[in-house]
Amino acid sequence: MNYVIVAIGAMIGGLLRYGVSVTFSSPDAGSFPWSTIAINIIGSFFLGLVMMLAGERHYIGDSAKLFLTIGVIGSFTTFSTFSYESLSLFQSGEILRGVIYISASNILSIIAAFGGYAVGKVI
After folding, report:
1. Would the pTM of this model clear 0.85, i.e. be above it?
2. Rounded CA gap, 111 and 24, in Å?
């Protein structure tokens, strides 16, 4: 049953990711990948929130935690795309943009995870 729960969540997360990507798409590999950074920051926020609500607060049960974390959020966020877009920026000679992208993605995603966790503490 856990496989079904994760699969349904993954379908939803994948569709959400596609929707955000289409709405905020990058025209070519040389431009800044705004949709990916937004997806990863949003996903980090919600992962922090869900982990707080599932862990310390016990508002979310095990099945819902699987559905949300591994299913929805796991398929919504995208480390492989982040990695490829970083490589593309470097290969196209946009070293500064690549460094900014990597730094901003990591720092803002960690801040977002902390923010989600903090919001979960007050709920």
Report:
1. yes
2. 22
Distance of CA 123 to the CA centre of its chain: 22
d(CA 4, CA 122): 32
Residue type, 22: V
Dig out the tokens for 104 from the structure: 């901003």
| Cα 89 to Cα 69: distance, rounded to the nearest angstrom | 29
pLDDT digits (tens, 9 = 90+) for 65-102: 999 999 999 999 999 999 999 999 999 999 999 999 99
Q: Which two tokens stand for residue 74?
A: 């796991």
Q: What is the DSSP string of the chain?
A: -HHHHHHHHHHHHHHHHHHHHHHT--SSTTS--HHHHHHHHHHHHHHHHHHHHHTTS--S-HHHHHIIIIIIIHHHS-HHHHHHHHHHHHHTT-HHHHHHHHHHHHHHHHHHHHHHHHHHHH-
